[in-house]
Amino acid sequence: MSRTGAADTSVLGPDGYGALKLGMSRSAALASGVLSPAKPVASDPAGCTGHDIVGHATGADSVGVYVSPTQGVVQIAAAAGWHTPERIGIGASKAQVRAAYPDLVVNTNGAHASVPGNARAVYRFNLDPAGKVTVFELALAHQECTN
C-alpha cells in the first residue's frame, strides 16, 4: 500500500500483477480487465497465447504475458517503472539484485532467483554488459511456454 492507502500499481510479485495472478486461467485473466486479447507471437509453444497488460502495450514482436492452456498465466513481464516488492526494477545493478535475492544465479541466458513468498515462481532478469537490469519478469518456475 502506498502512503495514501491505495494499492501500488507498479509492483510485480510475488503472485502476479494486481488482479492478474500466476496460474489464473485465460478466461479469468481476460475477465480481470488487466489482460488484453491475445496477439500474434512468433511461436506459440504448447498452444500458449501472448497478451499485453492493458495500458502497457509491448511492441509487435513481443508480449507482456504468456498464458498456457493447461497452466494458465505462466509469465508476466514488467513494464517500465515496475519493481518487485523488494524494490528491484529496470536499471538496478547486479549487486542490488543479488542483495535482494541472495540465491541469484547468473548465466549466459541472464539471471534468475526464487521469489520470496512464492515457492512456485522465479524472477528472471536480463542484464546488460554493465550488469544493469534491462528486463525482468515473474514466471512459474516449471511451465511450458517459455524458458
Adjacency order of strands in the biggest sheet: 3-4-5-9-8-7-6
Number of domains: 1
Low-confidence stretches: 1-6
The helix content, as a percent range, equals: under 10%
Distance between the termini: 32 Å
The CATH architecture? Sandwich
Shape: globular
Question: In sequence order, what are the helices and strands, one letter per element?
Answer: EEHEEEHEEEE
Tell me what portion of residues adopts beta-strand conformation. Answer: 25-35%
Could you tell me the CATH topology label. Answer: protein yfey like fold
CATH class category name: Mainly Beta
Radius of gyration in whole Å, from Cα? Answer: 15 Å
Can you count the beta strands?
9
The description of the largest β-sheet is: 7 strands, antiparallel
Mean pLDDT: 88
| Sheet/helix structural class | mainly beta
Explain what this protein looks like in three dimensions.
- This protein is mainly beta and 147 residues long.
- The chain has a single domain, classed as protein yfey like fold.
- Helices cover 9% and strands 30% of the residues.
- The protein has helices spanning 26-31, 94-100; strands at 16-17, 20-21, 49-51, 65-68, 72-77, 105-107, 110-115, 118-127, 133-140.
- The strands form two sheets. Strands 3-4-5-9-8-7-6 form a seven-stranded antiparallel sheet, with no helix packed on it. Strands 1-2 form a two-stranded antiparallel sheet.
- The chain starts with 15 loop residues before the first strand and ends in a 7-residue tail after the last strand.
- Residues 1-6 have low confidence and may be disordered.
